[in-house]
Amino acid sequence: MGILRTPGEVAKQLPTETLFISVWILGGVYALLGAISVAELGAMIPRSGGWYVFIHRAMGDYPGFVVGWSDWLSTCGTLGVIALVVGEYSAVLIPPLAGRDKAIAIVVVLMFAGLQWRGIRWGSFTQNLTSAIKTLIFVAIAIAAFTITGRASAETAVAPAQGFAFFTAIIIALQGVLYTYDGWYGIIYFGEEVRNPKRDVVRSMFGGVLLVVAIYLVVNLAYVHVLPMSQLANESLPAGAVARVIFGDYGDKVIRILAILSLLSTVNAYTLTAPRILYAMSCDELLHRKASRVNKGGTPTVTLFISTAVAILFIVSATFSQILAALAFFFVANYSMGYISVIVLRFREPDLPRPYRAWGYPWTTLLVLAGSIAFLVGAIISDKRNSLIALAILAASIPIYLLVRLLSHRQRA
């Protein structure tokens, strides 16, 4: 969803080709450095549940709860955002649906929740099918852009902002880029459901990062090959604009149809992911134990119901840009806690079997951690409103945690 939507947002902030491509390279390097460290955790602690599992093991109940809470919220929010974009594109394709974006998004979320309710096999099959379609879409866009069309007409370069304004533009652009790359660690949410986690977690993470970085860079190069930067900056769907250049008036409709198919793959992925965060927390008694119920198909149904309800709340209450800015803060905060967990567990549990050890440790881990902290500080300085919203959501975890602990004690009694 990000690579279809956010390049236009990034181009608004960084209006030259060099800066535009550079920030995507920077995001790719960040993701690769992150994978180097997180793969150690994933192979070492093969549990389903994502970041929460590692932070809870390294730092205890409350830090684990905070990360689980924020990660779950951001996953539900992302699910809502993607469903909203499906609604937007559907309304453009079918005029009678205009103004019903949110209703379409809610139907999409409910449809995939129903699919997941049937069991993990249905969700896995759907993910494999839709992922294959998505990959073919990106490959086709890039090949067509470079082979069928000529270079975009030259235009007078727009001078980027200077001083603090330039710093702000970089941070806002990185919010979109990191949001787009987010998901490179997706395998850690299914650690105990992978056949050979000690091998496949590492292989999946590195293979996934390298493939996605390559695809995103090629697609963005295709965008700037076909579209002048001034046009790219005003496109909510750059892939559609490229298709118009290649295929004429029919191109935009074709791309929007293919984009919807691609986005449905991501809806399915996050519908799989969100319930497993709460499931892991309930297994550790940081939520009511009834939340760990799993049906015959292997789906944690209680947490699926809760996650679906929260995703729908995101849909009815916010816009794309508002959700994007707040969630980027959550993503990087959780990354940071994960990198710290690598260091903590190296000291606290040095004898724990590590099928894979982070390459270049501790320097690679410290470098990506420093980059994460710098981004968070920059986000707070340059985007106070959305950062404060994100921090307020995090602060809400305190009373919720205390309530959960109280109920947990009563449950054991």
Structure, explained:
The structure is a single chain. The model has no long low-confidence stretch (mean pLDDT 83). The longest helix is centred in the middle third of the chain and has 35 residues, at 249-283. Helix 10 runs antiparallel to helix 11 (249-283). The protein has helices at residues 2-13, 17-44, 51-59, 61-93, 101-117, 120-148, 163-181, 197-226, 229-232, 238-247, 249-283, 301-317, 320-348, 363-382, 384-395, 397-412. It has a single domain, classed as Amino acid/polyamine transporter I (Up-down Bundle). It is mainly α and 413 residues long.
Features:
77% helix; globular; Amino acid/polyamine transporter I; 413 residues; mainly alpha
Describe the secondary-structure layout:
Elements: H1 2-13, H2 17-44, H3 51-59, H4 61-93, H5 101-117, H6 120-148, H7 163-181, H8 197-226, H9 229-232, H10 238-247, H11 249-283, H12 301-317, H13 320-348, H14 363-382, H15 384-395, H16 397-412
Helix pairs in contact: 1-7, 2-7, 2-8, 2-13, 2-14, 3-4, 3-13, 4-5, 4-11, 4-12, 4-13, 5-11, 5-12, 6-8, 6-10, 6-11, 7-13, 7-14, 10-11, 11-12, 13-14, 13-15, 14-15
